[in-house]
Amino acid sequence: MANDFKRQTFAANNYILKAGETSDSAYLILDGKVEIRMGAMGDEPTTLAVLGKGDVVGEMSLFDNSPHMASAIAIEKTVATTVSATEFLRRVDDMDPLMRGILKILVKRIREMGVRFSAQQT
């Protein structure tokens, strides 16, 4: 349990997550701002959202063990608590089975929308 939560600080313009990669943690933003971008490595990235205190990034990959579909970049100094995949999945397993099923369907739908969005951008 000691390694399930860890505080991390990201400087402005540092990547928290990169599209196409996997990670073993999600991040709860405690302070700062994070931009979610598709195509962050390309010439014309698209900002999907700007997240702040209380928001979480990286959770979808923990639900379905798929690579991140977007990058998360600190746009100012950002402090976050990491939630390990082990702890995250333990809590998901403890959920009501109906709610867990609904969340998995939502993750699948969001991923499908992301694929369609990416296809439209190219």
What does this protein structure show overall?
- The structure is a single chain.
- The chain has a single domain (5-121), classed as Sandwich (Jelly Rolls), CATH 2.60.120.10.
- The protein contains three helices and eight strands.
- The protein has helices at residues 59-64, 85-93, 97-121; strands spanning 5-10, 15-17, 25-31, 34-38, 46-51, 56-57, 71-74, 78-84.
Keywords:
122 residues; alpha+beta; Jelly Rolls; 4-stranded antiparallel sheet; 8 strands
Question: How do you describe this structure in short?
Answer:
With 122 residues, this protein is α+β, with helices and mostly antiparallel strands. 33% of the residues lie in helices and 33% in strands. The longest helix is centred in the last third of the chain and has 25 residues, at 97-121.
Q: Secondary-structure map with pairings?
A:
Elements (H helix, E strand, L loop, with lengths): L4 E6 L4 E3 L7 E7 L2 E5 L7 E6 L4 E2 L1 H6 L6 E4 L3 E7 H9 L3 H25 L1
Antiparallel strand pairs: 1-8, 2-7, 3-6, 3-8, 4-5, 4-7
- Judging by the overall fold, what is the CATH architecture? Sandwich
The biggest sheet, with number of strands, parallel, antiparallel or mixed sense and barrel status, is: 4 strands, antiparallel
Helix content: 25-40%
Query: Rg to the nearest angstrom?
Result: 15 Å
Strand tally = 8
Q: Give the overall shape.
A: globular
